[in-house]
Structure formats: C-alpha cells, structure tokens
Amino acid sequence: MPTSHDTDTIVVGSGHNALICAAYLAKAGRRVLVLERDSVIGGAVSTVERFPGYAIDRGSSAHLMIRHTGILEDLDLASHGLQYVDCDPWAFAPAAPDDDRPPLIFRHNLDDTCESIEAACGPRDADNYRRFVACWQPRTERVLAAFGRAPSGPELLRSFWGLPTPDGGSALGREFLMTGDFLLDRWFEDERLKAALAWFAAQSGPPMSEPGTAPMVGFAAAMHLIPPGRAIGGSGSLTRALAALITDRGGEVRTSSPVVEIRRVSHGLVVRTGDGVEITAPTVVAGCHISTTLDLLAAGGADENTIADRRDAIRVGNGIGMVVRIGAGELPRYRGIDDPAVTATGLQLLVTDRAQLHLAHGAASAGQLPPRPAVLAMSFSAVDPSISPPGKQQLSLWSQWHPYRLADGRRWRGGAVRDLAELEADRIVGELDRYAPGFADTIEHRYTQSPEDLESELDLRAGNVMHIDMSLDQMMMWRPTADLSGYRVPGTPGLYLTGASTHPGGGVNGASGRTVAHLVLLDGRRRRMRLLR
C-alpha cells in the first residue's frame, strides 16, 4: 500500500473551524495538510455557481459571531482577499398583512432601532429595549469570550465574574438558564417585538421554550456592537481566504481526498484516504462531524465499546430546517417600505407571533411539517452586486422546523408526482409572498436544499446544520460528550476535535478552530520539554 511523506499535522475536513485551526498552525510554522472529501472547500461555509452568473452559498450566509472573535484581524485575512460589509440594518421584521403598523427595523445604531420600535410598538417597549441592550450587552460579551476558551465549570464562572448582580449571583445564573420566551415576557410587552427577537435567537436551532435559551435572545444586544457581516463574493470567501493563507505558509489544502480511516500506531497517527494512500503524522485534527470522526476511528480498529458509548451519548436530532435559494428579477417589496434596499441588508424575520414558532417546532417534534413555515429571508445581492448578474437579485430563504425523518414515512426526494422538497419550497416562497406580494412572480431560478440534501451534499447528519442539537445538555463541557469536550480524544493521543460538533457549537464563529490550534501548539511544547529533561 503506498505511503506518503509525513507531515506535522493532518486536518480532516475543510470547514471554517478546520481551516482556522490549520491557518494558526501554519502561521506558527507547522507543516499542515488539509484533506477534504468534496471538490469544493469550506463545507457549509462555501459558495458555488448554482445558476449562471449567481454565486450561491451552500450553507451559511450571514456571519454573526466571527467578527466578535478577533480571528479575522489576528490572521490578517484581509490581506488574503477577505472583505466584509456591515449588514445594517441587521434585521427587519414586517408587520402582518392585516396590521397597518410600520415594520420593525433593527439598526447598528441603538437610537435608530429604538425609534423604529417606538413607532411600531410604542414608547414603553422602546425604553425596554434600550434597557435590555444595556443589561445584556456586557453579558453577551462575556459569553462570546467564554466561547473562545475550552469549556469547564470554573472557566465559565471566571468568565462572568464581576458582572452586576443586584439580586445576587444565583439570580444571574437563573437568568442564563431560563427560557428565551420567559426572558422576552419579562422584558417586553408587544408580541411582534418578542416574535422578532425569538426568531432571531432560534437560528441556533432550539426553540425559545427550552431552558438555557435566554442567552441566545441576548445575542441581539451584541449586534449593536458589531453587526452581522456579509463576506463580499459569498460566504465561501472566508474559507477561500483561509486556504490562501495556509498555502502561502507552506501548507496544502487537498480536495477530492476523502479520509476513510484514522488509526493509532506506535509512531503517531495514520490517516488513510479513499485511494489507499496512508499519511502519517504526530497530530491529526478532525474538523468533520463527530459521527464521521467516530466512523473513521471505528474503521481504524478503535475499541468498539468506546465508540458505541460515545455514539449513544450524542443526540444528532432530526434536522432543523431547509433552504430555498432564489435568483429573481427584483428584491422583495414589503408593505410600508418605499426603498426595498433598506430591508435587504440583513435578516428578514418573517414571523409576527411566537405561536407560529411553537407550532412549527411542535410539529417537527412529531415528525410533521410545520402548519406554517417560519421563514428567514436574506438578499445580500443588495449589498454585494457581484453575486448576481447585472440587474438581478438573489435570495436565501431559511425555514424552521422541518424534520429529516417524517412520521408518515415519506422521503424528501423521489415523490411519485413531485418531490416533497419542492412542494414545501412552494409553501416557503408563499410565506414570503404574504409579506411582499408579487415577489413570487419575479423568481427566475430556484434551488431547494431539503434536510436530505443538506446531509448528502455537506455531510450534515440528519440535516442538522449545527451537527448535533444545541440544547443545554449538549453545550459547553458536554459538547459533544463530557469526555470529548476538551477537544482531545482520550485513548488516542495526538487526535483533536474541532468544528460545530464541539464547543461553542454551530454558526460561523471559528473559536473552536483557534482553541484547538493553541492546544496542539501547547501540547507540542510540553512534549519537547519532556524530551529535554
């Protein structure tokens, strides 16, 4: 069997966390080889031409968190072609068709946002929102800081040390553990405002009825520090810039190279690729789905009982949602808005009552389709014309909750008359058309990503875009399991984990990749010191 030359570090997968880890290691002088099964780098942070002249994201579109981490500046990704534009307004929530009040417009400037809330919901909630931001902004900054470190109980306590606790530390702890719905009910009066903030917070996956979702609502406060960013050229511009940095530093990013086995040998770790090539290295970083990593270890002869125990402890879930990608002749024209570009810069939150969210999640829990799809629209061609042909627009319509496995046994693809995925896409487009009448008539191209499609194209098991459920029992020092939460794999020295399966979870953050790179370098220094003794 052919054997390649050794390298310092093999990184399995090219998602943004994996590439960030590889970039930090390459910057530190490590020889890095990234192996990607796909022909496109970036995993769920990638962009391809779906329709002629359109650069369409395959996964994420708005980057909410990574610009709060300092990673972009630390790696100087601007020098490798990465440019961001602020999404400002960062969110827009139209009124229901039978509601003549003005829409809600969330801008980076807090005063402007409160002015919009006052016009739509009244002065009390405008004042409530101002106080909410003042309270939750420092809390969210601490949460984001905690995301950037390996999780542990003492570390989390240190992260929140010094926050104002007028009612005592236990009361503060309770606020972090309470449901998002209860937090919203405590702070606000108008259901439209609550629904918009709940839908924004639910982008992590769990509904706001779950314990521990209050901090997800609190993330709205951070958007007034740094708004979501849109990478010029598409979401994949981030991972392309990272790949450019890695190659400039002497590393290699190899596509169409699926890894089929990871095994431990006396002199390190061996990674075998689909074409039979074996590559040895003292360090391997698995940036793929945790279930994929367990598959690779099982193929390499790892203890079956240990693998089975870890599988049993991980809840992948039953999908989260689906996406409809659209090429259109114009932007949606929402009621009450003269200039459609105002609504197109950020997240268009097409929910006016939390009951719609509750019903959608409840249906998904039973393996059924939502009574009415909850839709988030994004139309970034308004701020980046390069991703669409001249005079054209593109939209991404994300909708929750749509189960991967349906209770009636139907499949998303392969219907006798028409795919269920396309039938559901019709309903998702129809939901947008309720708020922006006539938009459906401007659609020229459409591409649907059902939960099955998300799994088959991006290895998102069961269509879960967060890898595994982001519920409280699978976060922090329990993600993906208690024994794997430190990013190292017990029993397999030299093997590390990164990506959405690890703390802090899904979304475009990158903190996991940076943390693992620092651990790899730290462990390397410790090994060298032991050898010198």
Describe this entry's structure for a reader.
The protein has 533 residues and is α/β, with parallel strands linked by helices. It has 16 helices and 19 strands. Among the domains are: 191 residues, FAD/NAD(P)-binding domain (3-Layer(bba) Sandwich); 149 residues. It is globular, with a radius of gyration of 23 Å.
How would you sum up this structure in a few lines?
The protein is built from 16 helices and 19 strands. With 533 residues, it is an alpha/beta fold. Among the domains are: 9-51 and 234-315 and 467-532, FAD/NAD(P)-binding domain (3-Layer(bba) Sandwich), CATH 3.50.50.60; 317-465.
Assign the CATH superfamily of the domain at 9-51 and 234-315 and 467-532.
FAD/NAD(P)-binding domain
> Radius of gyration, rounded?
23 Å
Record field, number of beta strands: 19
The CATH class of the domain at 9-51 and 234-315 and 467-532: Alpha Beta
Strand content is: 15-25%
Output the strand order for the largest sheet: 7-6-15-16-17-14-18
Total count of helical runs of at least 4 residues: 16
The poorly predicted ranges are: 1-5
Distance between the termini: 38 Å
Name the overall outline: globular
Helix coverage percent: 25-40%
